[in-house]
Amino acid sequence: MSEDVTVVRDEIEAYADGTVARVRILAVPESEKFPDGIKYAFHYGDAGADDPIIRFDNHHGVHELHLGSRVVEADYPGLQTLYRAWRAALPFDKRTDW
User: Fold this and answer.
1) Which listed residue, 14, 47, 58, 78, has the most CB atoms within 10 A of its CB?
2) Which DSSP letter does residue 32 get?
3) pTM for the structure as a whole
4) Per-residue model confidence (pLDDT) at position 1
5) What is the DSSP string of 51-89?
6) Residue 5 to residues 29, 76, 77, 92, Cα–Cα distance (Å)
7) In the prediction, which pLDDT does 94 show?
8) Tell me, what DSSP letter sits at residue 17?
């Protein structure tokens, strides 16, 4: 990771049922690709699976919602709003971890 990238939050939780939840937020230099200076992923899925159950991210500069193998471009209402939407999509018993 380059010196101009700062890890803001990076947490992962592995569950007994084989699922994994991860929140990763990086502060990156503002650019055309990342105009807000933020790179993020809110992920929940089966460990080792190719596709998530649900993930919000902007890894490629475009805000996306991943639902299984389906990927759609998403609005960006802000990190807090996306985080709340992601958390609400988790199974109820896993929400307390986040």
Assistant:
1) 58
2) S
3) 0.94
4) 66
5) S-SEEEE-TTSS-EEEETTEEEE-----HHHHHHHHHHH
6) 7, 21, 23, 33
7) 96
8) T
